[in-house]
């Protein structure tokens, strides 16, 4: 589900693109709610994957960095926005959009070797040590969360190597167990609600013929985010109110619910957290019974 979840959500842009909106809402204090799933996702993958040129430090950066993320130059976006037009295929750069990529390098190495039958290897101290060293090197280059390391001398022994492997794999558990598709489902509901509330303002700003198709919902964020320090934040405030309104029960922790459930870690829940988790499980079972809500 980890690999499928990333492919589906990257294809729709349903997680990484709303991350830009959430960051702006929090920074400008336009929302009181905490979207815990989004905060956890940014922690798992790092801000560098969400913001290709660094996090925005002023209002005029919000839309610009969003468009760089989806593969459109800021100049092109500004021109089309002034004309009240939507992005066309030719507006996208050859570099394309930037997506979330796995940081679970140990898992990916083992998956390639054993699941995909590629570059098969024998389990030896040397081969396992090679995987660990490669993962550590890649993690440092990406600013990856710290993996508890074992000194080179300890790794010489089989026990030391296996200990290092266990610790490295354990650090990847949360990414592998996170409920990407569950978060996608709720993110899409939030985007739909934002379209309903923001559409009158979008038509007023960009013309009466301005419409958004279902697949364009994540790209709507580029029109909600202010592109200039002097631009009105009315739509950003509306989006914040929508998030606050929908932040009830289990809505903003769906991905984390799955992470708690499948990670194998013995979490200690408060009574309130336990009720939230059970409410989500009950809702999922109910949806499964009637076959509705396929987003």
Automatic annotation (TrEMBL):
Superkingdom field: Eukaryota
Protein name: Uncharacterized protein
Naturally occurring in which organism (per UniProt): Fusarium irregulare
